[in-house]
Design a protein that fits this description.
By secondary structure, this protein is mainly beta. The chain is 15% helix and 43% strand. The protein is built from 3 helices and 28 strands. Strands 1-28-27-26 form a 4-stranded antiparallel beta sheet, with no helix packed on it. It has a 4-stranded antiparallel beta sheet with strand order 2-3-4-5, with no helix packed on it. The chain has a 4-stranded antiparallel beta sheet with strand order 6-7-8-9, with no helix packed on it. A hairpin with a 4-residue loop joins strand 2 and strand 3. It is globular and about 80 Å long. The two termini are 40 Å apart.
Length: 395
């Protein structure tokens, strides 16, 4: 190893120099000058060698330490990822306010959280945790879709069969659009640049041109649609709750491509997608399972257990983890083990009623909401009990 270091630093030739000046040809003209001055050539170059050697060793040690630290950090990260991150509730934002709630939508770029609250949409800054605005007059609002590329947002107003179009910066409502009967979930598809409302009463989906703010058509779905997901390549998928099916349709042609039976999945609700590996994650609200579906064939490849009363799922592409939030006060973390094998990495305790959820793709935080709710049939929300729970990994 020493010989390699010497050669690498060009100092190997100095090793053979003697104390006398009889062999100064090895080191050339400089040695001749030193000998004339009475200085031993070998002493001069042996000192140079030792100095260079020490520098080489110091450099190599520093490099080795850096590499070791990088390898250690990588190993720790891989071990944590393999085991499933240690998620927990780290913050609770007390928002209060009247009314129930439904879908949450995270705006990663604008660090905001949109919360559907029956007659309005609350807009929360996720950094300051303060409410920074509100989208009013959204009777029976269920969800919010964001089209960041054109600076617009859209709400599905279930009790008046409309969509509110609002400016993403000012939050000002620009117009309302009449859509199908009972719009529930809502989705923006970047491929077709259209917004789709999934109409629970009408059993169909309405397509809206996001730029023009105009209805361009609809598709009959053959059942009550729940949440949807897009592969952003020309296919939108939607759960059909009452028939336990999934429909895949073309968002441009507005035609159904496929209809798949979701084996062993009752009341499919939440839906998320792993676009890279073409896998869909359906929360089965009726039988405490997450159905993992091949997005090309419709085949159910796994059905890991989740909590009771699931209403939302999410997928973190950076961490290869899927999540299912349930009304029993849990979020189940599902790990992709490879080869279409999925397992429960963790069950996070949240709070009873925290059934809906949103994922911030940049911070990897999960947001869920709940409140103290009275008994049926009124199910009134207790004053000032509404909260946002922030869930994140410990590392």
């Amino acid at each position: 190893m020493f010989a390699q270091l010497w050669r690498a630093h060009g100092i190997g030739n100095a090793i053979h120099v003697r104390h006398t000046c009889g062999r100064r040809a090895i080191v050339g003209k400089e040695c001749t000058i030193l000998c004339a001055a009475g200085i031993g050539c070998g002493d001069r170059f042996r000192g140079m060698f030792l100095l260079n050697y020490e520098k080489v060793i110091a450099m190599k040690m520093r490099a080795a330490v850096r590499i070791s630290l990088i390898l250690l950090a990588t190993t720790v990260a891989l071990v944590v990822a393999a085991a499933g991150a240690d998620y927990k509730v780290v913050k609770t934002w007390k928002l209060g306010g009247d009314g129930g709630w439904d879908y949450l939508t995270a705006d990663s770029d604008g660090h905001r959280l949109f919360i559907a609250r029956a007659t309005r949409v609350m807009v929360i800054d996720t950094e300051s945790t303060k409410q920074v605005g509100e989208i009013p007059e959204t009777a029976g609002v269920h969800g919010v879709a964001l089209a960041s590329e054109i600076g617009r947002g859209f709400t599905s107003n279930g009790r008046e069969d409309t969509v509110s179009v609002f400016d993403l910066k000012s939050l000002a409502v620009e117009k309302k659009i009449k859509v199908g009967s009972g719009p529930d979930a809502i989705l923006y598809d970047p491929f077709s640049k259209r917004v789709f409302t999934f109409n629970g009463k009408g059993h169909d989906t309405t397509a809206v041109d996001a730029s023009k703010g105009e209805v361009v058509g609809k598709i009959e779905l053959g059942g009550k649609p729940e949440f949807a997901a897009t592969d952003e390549k020309g296919t939108v998928f939607v759960n059909i709750e009452d028939t336990s099916e999934m429909v895949a349709f073309d968002p441009q042609k507005l035609t159904v491509k496929s209809r798949w039976k979701l084996t062993d999945c009752l009341e499919p609700t939440g839906l998320a997608i792993d676009r890279k590996n073409r896998r869909l994650f359906t929360g089965c609200g009726g039988n405490k399972k997450m159905t993992v579906v091949d997005a090309d064939s419709g085949k159910v490849v796994a059905s890991p257990p989740i909590g009771e009363g699931c209403d939302a799922t999410a997928f973190d592409a950076d961490r290869s983890l899927a999540f299912a939030s349930a009304g029993d006060g849990t979020i189940t973390v599902i790990r992709e083990d490879g080869g279409d094998k999925f397992s429960v990495a963790q069950t996070v305790t949240t709070q009873k009623g925290a059934r809906t959820m949103a994922l911030d793709a940049k911070t990897h935080q999960l947001f869920t909401v709940t409140a103290n709710v009275g008994p049926r049939p009124e199910r009134k929300v207790e004053p000032d009990s509404f909260v946002v729970l922030v869930v994140e990994a410990a590392h």
